[in-house]
Design a protein that fits this description.
This protein folds into two domains: about 300 residues, Immunoglobulin-like (Sandwich), CATH 2.60.40.420; about 100 residues, Cytochrome Bc1 Complex, Chain D, domain 2, CATH 1.10.760. It has eleven helices and 23 strands.
Length: about 500
């Protein structure tokens, strides 16, 4: 009887050993073992435009994510306030970075001062409502649910509490990156940008506290289309820094809630595009990429010459009239073989023009020419320079573009200090200025004009739109040009 028991135990032990050996040597079994969860960590979340560091582990783990919904009032534009509903106290919500295979334990807390319940729908979740059915959270409460990150990619998350459109339109959205097992290729810099629309009862730029407009939202007529939650969030002193030669990766989301984005960087080309936030390179050498509402894209580029580059929605009135503009400021060494900058500026009149500014010369010449102004009034000459150089930003009526380019019409800034205006045209200006009580924070590049051209265009501007009628001479321009001390007041 005893020998029989030993015999049975031996058979069972042999079976376990054989089964284990078969499982170990079967294709994919070693891989399956390596995918088992190991350890636990708390997710490091970042406010835009910052991105958490890449995942440096080679195995999935349990990741605990703590995120708070909070209702706050802050600026939508200069002088314009809005009641935002947020994930993490900012718009867009915090960036979440995990790895495929991770088990995510998600803690969603709703600030006790909130007036509304909120939840979260993560497009990275495989499950009903993307987590929204499990995360409905009243003010002063926390909901906890878990999910396994099954698919790698860049995904949008947003509030899905009814009415869903209202919660998204008020600022409740962000991005979650699920890295593939092998990670993403290393780059020099990564940035987080999210486009969205705001539908306000007031017009664009109207000062004061704005409220949500249901009619505009349903009709898809946004008052604002912005990057990272407000006009000017990534311009001027907030421009994204980089250096010439660096590879930059943008994680770009489009929260909508309605419009498709035509994401473009003026003066640069996307070397790689991971279309719709997937993990495969869908295109290379791309000028503009479409990002649907509720979608994303990963784009990579390398800046080749220094300067300030505008990031825009190339549905272009959104950029210059509704706020969808950001700046990438690249420092580094010039390469004139790639881009020369403006080499020469000349006044041009058509062959049929009655005024011959260039002494009748019609054929191109490599010799610098001096305009023949004997039959041209200074006012006409100044107007010609304005129409060629200034009109795009400051507009034909001198009113500029609200919150983007300052007006010249009745400008207190313009009329206060003639020397400062000469210096601005000569040397450029950037940073915050106040014009007629409104703040502007942008960049005016130096203009490549002769002293005579600068004197003419400034004299023309001073003579227009209720300005002071000051006269500017070429000698005054020369004096400022030769000054080493910057005119600051």
């Amino acid at each position: 009887m005893k020998n029989k028991r030993y015999w049975i135990v031996g058979i069972i032990a042999s079976t376990i050993v054989i089964a284990g050996s078969v499982m170990f040597f079967m294709p994919g079994c070693g891989e399956s073992y390596s995918k088992q969860l190991q350890g636990q960590e708390f997710a490091i979340l970042t406010h835009a435009p910052l991105v958490p560091l890449p995942i440096n582990r080679n195995h999935p783990t349990k990741v605990i994510v703590n995120l708070e919904t909070k209702e706050i009032t802050r600026n939508l534009a200069d002088g314009v306030e809005y009641n935002f509903w947020t994930f993490g106290g900012d718009v867009p919500g915090k960036f979440i970075r995990i790895r495929v295979g991770d088990l995510v334990e998600f803690h969603l807390s709703n600030d006790p001062n909130s007036k509304m319940p909120h939840n979260i729908d993560l497009h990275a979740v495989s499950g009903p409502g993307g987590g929204s059915t499990s995360s409905f959270t009243a003010p002063g409460h926390t909901s906890v649910f878990s999910f396994t990150a099954m698919n790698p990619g860049l995904f949008v998350y947003h509030c899905a509490t009814a009415p869903v459109g209202l919660h998204i339109a008020n600022g409740m959205y962000g991005l979650i990156l699920v890295e593939p097992e092998e990670g993403l290729p290393p780059v020099d810099r990564e940035y987080y940008i999210m486009q969205s629309e705001f539908y306000t009862e007031g017009k664009y730029g109207d000062p004061g506290l704005h409220t949500f407009s249901q009619d505009k939202a349903v009709d898809e007529r946004p008052s604002y289309v912005v990057f990272n939650g407000s006009v000017g969030s990534l311009t001027g002193e907030k421009a994204l820094p980089c250096k010439v030669g660096e590879t930059i990766r943008f994680f770009v989301g489009n929260a909508g809630p309605n419009l498709v984005s035509s994401f473009h960087v003026i003066g640069a080309i996307f070397d790689k595009v991971y279309g719709e936030g997937g993990t495969k390179i869908s295109q290379q050498n791309v000028q503009t990429t479409l990002i649907p509402a509720g979608g994303s894209a990963i784009v990579e580029l390398k800046i080749k010459v220094p300067g300030t580059y505008l990031l825009v929605d190339h549905s272009i009135f959104r950029a210059f009239n509704k706020g969808a503009m950001a700046m990438l400021k690249a420092d580094g060494k010039e390469d004139l073989t790639i881009y020369s900058g403006k080499q020469k500026e000349e006044v041009y009149y058509s062959v049929d023009s009655k005024e011959e500014l260039w002494g009748g010369i019609k054929e191109p010449s490599t010799t610098p020419l001096t305009p023949n102004l004997s039959n041209v009034s200074p006012a006409d000459f100044g107007k010609a320079i304005f129409n060629q150089t200034c009109i795009a930003c400051h507009q034909a009526d001198g009113k500029g573009i609200a919150n983007v380019f300052p007006p010249l019409e009745g400008s207190d800034f313009l009329n206060q200090n003639k020397d400062r205006e000469i210096e601005t045209v000569l040397k450029g200006r950037q940073g915050v200025i106040t014009v007629n009580g409104n703040s502007f924070n942008g960049i005016m590049p130096p203009q490549i004009l002769t002293e005579q051209q600068i004197s003419a265009v400034l004299t023309y501007v001073y003579s227009q739109w209720g300005n002071s009628n000051k006269k500017v001479t070429a000698d005054e321009v020369t004096k400022i040009k030769n000054q080493k001390i910057v005119v600051s007041k």
